[in-house]
Predict the structure.
Amino acid sequence: MKDILTAEFFVEMVRTATNMYNHGWDERNSGNISLLLDESEVAKYVDVNRVLRTLPTGFKAPELNGKYFLVTGTGKYFKNVQYAPDVNLGLVKIIDDGMNAQLLWGFSDGGKFTSEFPAHMMSHAARLSVNPANRVIMHCHPTNILAMTYVHTLDEREFTRTLWQMCTECIVVFPDGVNVLPWMLCGTNEIGEATAEKMRTARLVVWAQHGLYAAGADLDEAFGLIETAEKAAEIYLKIAHLPLVNTISDEAMHLLEGRFAVKARDGYLS
Ligand code: 2HA
Ligand code: ZN
C-alpha cells in the first residue's frame, strides 16, 4: 500500500485548501471541498475493506452509492489542512443509498465530514447527471461575491450579466453563468436540494449573504471559476458607485463566443 500523503490527488487537495485560505476565502472553519475518486485510485492507498467508522449522512443519494470522496471535516480550519491533513480531511465511501458513509482514512481526532455534506453530495449527483466528468464540489466565502449580494439584484440573468461585463474573460470562463439562491439556512438538506437543482444549469451557485459553490472536473476548474467570479465582483464593487462610462457590449460578448468557441447561456445576451 502506498502512502496517501504522496498521492497526486491528495497533494492537490491540500494545496487547494491552503491556496483558498491564502486568498481569504476560508476564514476560521468556513468552506469545504469534496473530491470524487475512482476506486482503482483509492485502492492504491487504503484498504477499501477496512472501515474505521460508519457515519450517518441524513439524506438519500442512491446515484452516489459505492462512490469514494476525499472531503474536508466539519469545524476544521482550511488554514490547518496542510499541517494536519489526517485530522482535517477524511476519505469516505458512500453506502446504503447515501444514508451512511464508511470512513476509510482520516478524521483521526474522531471528527466527521463537513456540515455541508448534503449540499456537496446532492450537487455531485446533479453535476454528474449533466457532466459525467465532474469530480469536485467546492464551497467558500469570497469577500466580493458576498458583498455584491447585499447591493445587487439576485436575479440570475442580471447577476451573471454584471459579472460578465466586469472582465472580458468572464463569459469565456463561465458561459453557463452564475445561479443564485436567496439566503437560506445552511447545513440543511433543504439548501442541499436547492443547490443541487441550481447546479444542473451552472457550475457556480451563489448563496446570498453567505458564499459561493463551484463544480468542476478537477480542483483547478472549480478554483478557477471562483477566482474569476470573485475578481469580477471585486471590480464591480470598485465601480458600482461611479458613473458608468463604458462597458462590454453584448455585441462584444458575441465576438468572444465566436473567438473562444463558447456559447453564452440561452437568453442571457441580446
Ligand atoms: O463549513 O462554510 O457553510 C462551514 C461553512 C458552512
Ligand atoms: Zn459556508
